[in-house]
Design goal:
Elements (H helix, E strand, L loop, with lengths): L1 H9 L4 H13 L4 H25 L24 H12 L6 H17 L5 H16 L3
Helix pairs in contact: 1-5, 2-3, 3-4, 3-6, 4-5, 4-6, 5-6
């Protein structure tokens, strides 16, 4: 369970994906503009999902006698910002890095949020769809 929490923390605020994009832009001068554009889409996906989350106001799942297995920045859950930014990164970075690896990482991120009890399946599914759509703008 500890590794699931650790993996999930990588997705806070899209940090791991923003760092990936920044590293790609710094190290791959030939595709620097593409990296920057894709990274901007990932950041935008996070901002959009957070805005939707605040507008919708759906609270995180509550299961009697079962606490969440990790603390969260807000008590709101729809859509999952972790899933949104992860799927946006998988789609946007898919021309720069191996796409199957990126999608596997995104699916694992969504699954970690379900395992930890901090999202409903519909939160993760909506985040995956939103992220994929926004990430398409970064290709």
């Amino acid at each position: 369970m500890r590794w699931v929490r650790s993996y999930s923390r990588l997705g806070e605020h899209g940090a791991v994906w923003l760092a990936t994009g920044a590293a790609g832009a710094a190290l791959d001068s030939r595709h620097r503009a593409r990296w920057a554009h894709a990274t901007a889409c990932v950041g935008g996906a996070y901002v959009i999902s957070t805005s939707i989350k605040l507008a919708v106001g759906r609270h995180r799942p509550v299961v009697e006698d079962l606490p969440h297995l990790m603390a969260t920045p807000t008590g709101l859950s729809f859509p999952s910002s972790h899933a949104t930014s992860s799927f946006a990164a998988a789609r946007a970075f898919g021309r720069l890095l191996p796409s199957p690896v990126l999608y596997a990482a995104a699916v694992a991120m969504g699954a970690s949020r379900l395992y930890l009890g901090v999202h409903y399946p519909s939160d993760v599914a909506a985040g995956a769809l939103l992220g994929t759509l926004i990430g398409s703008l970064g290709r």
